Amino acid sequence: MAYQGEIFALTTSFLWSATAVIFSEASKLVGSHIVNVARLFLAVIFLTLTIFIFGLYKEVQLNYDQILFFSLSGFVGLSMGDTFLFKALELIGPRLSMLLMSMAPPLAALLSFFFLSERLSLLAWLGIFISTSGVAMVAFFDKHNNEKFNFSLYGLATGGLILAKKGLNSGIINEFVASFLRMISGFIFLLPLLAIAKKISFGKNFSLTSKAAILILVGSIVGPYLGITFSIFAINNSDVGIASTLMSLSPIILIPVSRLLYKDKITIYSVIGTFLAIIGVALIFLRDKF
């Protein structure tokens, strides 16, 4: 199917936008670090069930490179990335953190050129630049929309995606199995990191309210389970730079959501940023037509 990777990438962006709303509310109830660990744990369970129910394990013929790259991808993108982003949110705030995160797509495209030999057309580069500029404008200037959702959506997206694509290029592998390898390694590395930092404790004071449990459950299905798996489908069927750009549109998608749920005003920066993002996405889809 034409533009399969791009469609998966756009769908991922919508899934991560929904995850932002759900996990933001859950974090208010039990804390972001509890949510971070619980989402990966539940996603591992969902992926394990999917792999066994649909018999995907029968197709598994893993090699050393795949195990290495997907494990490193989970460590970089889901463990270290989230930990660093939480610290960035604490030190420099959500607006600057999201602005820096919006720089991931062009960096991903540049790194994929050197490490994956992926070459993009001039029109594709222009689309990435314009779309990223629109997202950056919303992330930096439209503070009301972004400060509602001040937790990790992407992790260290660039390094994680590059390593995941290296794993995909190392042999044939089902996307759900690839996502499982990323997720389990991310969870294994994240738990001791937070325990050492004393950011999470499962002692006698640990509890989940029923509302928080439901939010975390739903968010884990929408985000880590479907969102991260769809991101694997996206980079497996498209260039990393293109997929990364389309998956970074959550701040744009969250504008009407923030308006409906939190009565935030739609500013001129929101309008201009959205307009730029749409132009950039259009150029990306039209990159091979000229």
Could you explain the architecture of this structure?
The chain is an all-alpha fold. It has one domain. Helices cover 77% and strands 0% of the residues. It is built from 12 helices and no strands. It has helices at residues 4-30, 32-53, 64-101, 104-115, 122-141, 143-146, 157-169, 175-196, 210-236, 240-246, 250-262, 268-285. Helix 1 (4-30) packs across helix 11 (250-262), helix 4 packs antiparallel against helix 10 (240-246) and helix 9 packs antiparallel against helix 10. 52% of the residues are buried. Residues 151-156 have low confidence and may be disordered.
Provide the descriptors you would attach to this structure in a database record.
77% helix, 12 helices, 0% strand, mainly alpha, 290 residues, single chain
Count of beta strands: 0
The SS-based structural class is mainly alpha
Strand percentage lies at: under 5%
Q: How much is the average pLDDT? A: 83
What is the total domain count?
1
- Gyration radius, in Å: 18 Å
Extract low-pLDDT stretches. 151-156
How many H/I helical runs? 12
Q: End-to-end span in angstroms?
A: 20 Å
Shape: globular
> What is the helix/strand order?
HHHHHHHHHHHH
Largest sheet: none
